[in-house]
Amino acid sequence: MIEENYLKKWIAVDWGTSTFRAYLVQNNEVSDTIETKDGMKFVKSHLFEQTLLTLIDRWLDNDKITEILASGMVGSKQGWEEAPYQKTPCNLKSLNYITPSLKDNRISLKIFSGVSQINQPDVMRGEETQIAGFLNENPNFNGSICLPGTHSKWVEIKNNNIIKFKTFMTGELFEIISKNSVLIHSVKAEKIDKMELLKSVDKILQKPELFSNALFQVRADDLINSKGPSIYKSRLSGYLLAIELLGSVEFWKNSDIVLIGNPDLTAMYQFVFNKKVKSIKKFLSRDMILKGLKNFKKNFQ
Amino acid sequence: MIEENYLKKWIAVDWGTSTFRAYLVQNNEVSDTIETKDGMKFVKSHLFEQTLLTLIDRWLDNDKITEILASGMVGSKQGWEEAPYQKTPCNLKSLNYITPSLKDNRISLKIFSGVSQINQPDVMRGEETQIAGFLNENPNFNGSICLPGTHSKWVEIKNNNIIKFKTFMTGELFEIISKNSVLIHSVKAEKIDKMELLKSVDKILQKPELFSNALFQVRADDLINSKGPSIYKSRLSGYLLAIELLGSVEFWKNSDIVLIGNPDLTAMYQFVFNKKVKSIKKFLSRDMILKGLKNFKKNFQ
């Protein structure tokens, strides 16, 4: 019985650009979690194994091999070792993986592939695992999933396959414009003004050609009228969201949509999409990525 | 005669966010030039006078007051002292200025106002001086002037007045996307591929809703097809230019346009606008700002 439990012990890793998350899974339950800022971009490529071992050391046995399943940017060109993309249409029940060679013999490691699309070039790494997690519990789902974030994704699912998808720079544009542009002086606010957000989304939905001028107007309006940072943060958010809405309309118009992301972001998307779509269901990224890795794990049992 | 020449000696200063430029003017000719990286953002506000004095020390006399006329971001809220904006419509023959109090008695200083627009909030600082320089030599000009740059401006001129204008974040978006986003890996090129630039402009002109997705596709296409950085730099430039073109159409459609900027930028704009406008004339920012300050100087003689 101990031996059997032991065999059922493994580690799920979500290793992204900025964050490292690991889950110790025993008997299909998470018994311990580690989350650090050791994201890929902070780790030199020759130190990936060492960093991983240091972080999860307390979970390892000296006389047994612990299996690790990892997903995310760790498998990118800038990551530990490149796990080639799998092309759309892509069945998430049989996602490819690579097994980097390791110095330490206490672990085995599988890094799962991302998904690429050749026509209308696009790529994802990590989102496919979240989608696999969602599909594991909703195996008959056909429709659109939105994963808001740094690189916001809209994904069409049919018969457990990713049929096509589109990425928008929404989160990254928000971050670099807030931090690195002249708008830095105007948008430093904690909160969003919801009505201003909706008004701003509508402004650009109706006239996308105003986008670049509207961005500068955020600063100009602040210099002239000083309406406060939450107004200007809401405008910037609204303009960027509107550009995403315009480009993703084929995914959400008259549709039931699923949102997978962090709670703040999915709440904002839900608020903006309310009345624009038939229905909205929300799920957490972390839950989905763990379920996704568990689902991949099933294939090796 | 010496005394008369002496009286005609003054200094023109173009003090921007990143660059300091000063011109010693004697008998209406530039006899010496100083250009450094002591832009406003690198100078602490209590050190403006000291920095200016150090930079232009070799031009100063101990027993006479040298007049300095300055323009640009030096008069902004984050600059030496705020020179309030003058509102549109704004006659460039009578631009306001402030005279910051000085510790050193070898100089007098006038910092000229920027121009603001209340309806459709917008602001400029420095561009009005370039426009004044252009209008000094083209006093009967009525039409549109484009000043491409970090914050690209389109300005409507009528009877020596700035009637209205629109700013686009084109240059700043290009810079922060190239340097701070995931596209950093794809767009590090010296050159632009002109055909790719035109194709990219047209793509977004026809479908502006693709903008945010097209930006991410720059990276995705590089990961999948590796067409080389000059292709991807050209795409990024084209997409941003297209957004500016869409938003500024009222200024250039069926018009004769004037471009004022640095040679590389005006050449790129000329290439993109070729066949889209009736005619294009190009002028250099530096020449125009100096002419503009000379023009302002006339009012005090």
Task: Give structural notes.
2 copies of one chain form a homodimer. The model of chain A has no long low-confidence stretch (mean pLDDT 94). Chain A is built from 10 helices and 15 strands. By secondary structure, chain A is of the alpha/beta class. Chain A folds into 2 domains: 2-125, Nucleotidyltransferase, domain 5 (2-Layer Sandwich); 168-283, 2-keto-3-deoxy-galactonokinase, C-terminal domain (Nucleotidyltransferase, domain 5). Chain A has helices at 2-7, 48-56, 127-137, 170-180, 194-206, 211-225, 229-247, 249-252, 263-273, 285-298; strands at 10-15, 20-26, 29-36, 66-71, 86-87, 90-91, 97-98, 107-112, 115-117, 122-124, 143-147, 152-158, 161-168, 256-261, 279-284. Chain A starts with a helix and ends with a helix. In chain A, strands 3-2-1-4-8-7 form a 6-stranded mixed β-sheet. The first copy, chain A, has a 6-stranded mixed β-sheet with strand order 6-13-12-11-14-15, with helices on both faces. At the A-B interface, β13, α4, α6 and α7 of A face β13, α4, α6 and α7 of B.
Give the strand line-up of the largest sheet of chain A: 3-2-1-4-8-7
Largest sheet of chain A: 6 strands, mixed
Q: What's the N-to-C terminus distance of chain A? A: 17 Å
Range of helix content of chain A: 25-40%
Number of separate structural domains of chain A: 2
Number of helices of chain A: 10
Number of strands of chain A: 15
Topology:
The structure is a homodimer of 301-residue chains.
Chain A: H1 2-7, E1 10-15, E2 20-26, E3 29-36, H2 48-56, E4 66-71, E5 86-87, E6 90-91, E7 97-98, E8 107-112, E9 115-117, E10 122-124, H3 127-137, E11 143-147, E12 152-158, E13 161-168, H4 170-180, H5 194-206, H6 211-225, H7 229-247, H8 249-252, E14 256-261, H9 263-273, E15 279-284, H10 285-298
Helix pairs in contact in A: 3-10, 4-7, 5-7, 6-7
